[in-house]
Specification:
Blueprint: H1 12-25, H2 38-45, H3 49-62, E1 65-67, E2 73-75, H4 78-81, H5 87-91, H6 100-124, H7 127-145, H8 154-172, H9 175-187, H10 192-198, H11 200-203, H12 206-218, H13 221-242
Helix pairs in contact: 1-3, 6-8, 6-9, 6-12, 6-13, 7-8, 7-12, 8-9, 12-13
Length: 245
């Protein structure tokens, strides 16, 4: 193996992990590739075996390699073996730019989960969450209709959008959606400012937000699903237009 460089003595295992993971994700180390033996890797990285083994264990846990005790360590098909925790690493391509295909996938997942969570929240959310959702809507109305230019303030709109959907996800009572939201928010953090700008029209759509909150308060799951899907699809369309196939 070539192309690796010695690492600093601080966070040695992490540095080794990052180098190997990057080469797997960008295809430099293809599916099925056999990694060199431990001795060769420790010499190339300039680290001890303990640090190397820790790095390999992390790669194995992430679904990037398969460690066969007494045998070779090989690159796995991460699309079949990894979990959503890999998503933030895929958001940026090998050149450091945003991977358009991953962005599209993230936005499609956001729409699907958000719509279903809204439907579930209509039937499950306790009074406290419904009340808090109404409070966020009131704050959004004040921001958008006020004289301070809040309707065009991407960061201010985002600051209300996150708790709005957080409450709907929490109200759904679905732990898988809860964890997925955490990953989605983390996934597009490298492009947070751009995403916030692209979602401005969605986030300042007061009529859509009012209809969605009213549907949840009325316990109308199907109406909540439809309103959430329409709202989120507006943002999805804006992002996909910016990152065409």
């Amino acid at each position: 193996m070539s192309g690796f460089s010695p690492v600093e003595r601080t966070s040695v295992a992490t540095a080794v992990f990052e180098q190997i993971a990057a080469r797997i994700l960008d295809g430099t180390l293809p599916l099925g590739e056999r990694l060199p033996a431990e001795r060769a890797l420790t010499e190339e990285f300039g680290v001890n075996r303990q640090a190397l083994r820790e790095a390999l264990q992390r790669l194995d846990q992430l679904g990037l390699v398969e460690i066969r005790h007494g045998g070779a360590t090989r690159v796995r098909d991460f699309r079949r073996t990894a979990g959503l925790d890999l998503l933030p690493r895929l958001f940026l391509g090998a050149d450091g730019g945003i991977d358009a295909a991953v962005v599209r996938s993230v936005m499609e997942m956001r729409t699907a989960i958000g719509a279903d969570a809204a439907a579930l929240a209509a039937g499950r959310a306790p009074a406290g969450i419904r009340s808090a959702l109404r409070d966020v809507l009131t704050a959004l109305e004040a921001l958008v209709t006020g004289d301070g230019g809040g309707a065009d303030d991407a960061a201010a709109l985002a600051a209300l959008d996150v708790p709005f959907w957080d409450l709907l996800i929490e109200g759904s009572g679905n732990v898988c959606y809860r964890l997925s939201l955490n990953v989605l928010l983390d996934a597009y953090r490298p492009a947070q400012a751009l995403v916030d700008e692209l979602l401005v029209d969605e986030r300042r759509d007061l009529a859509a937000h009012r209809d969605l909150v009213a549907a949840v308060e009325a316990g109308d799951g199907e109406r909540a699903r439809a309103r959430a899907a329409a709202l989120l699809d507006r943002g999805r369309a804006a992002v996909l237009a910016h990152f065409p196939e």
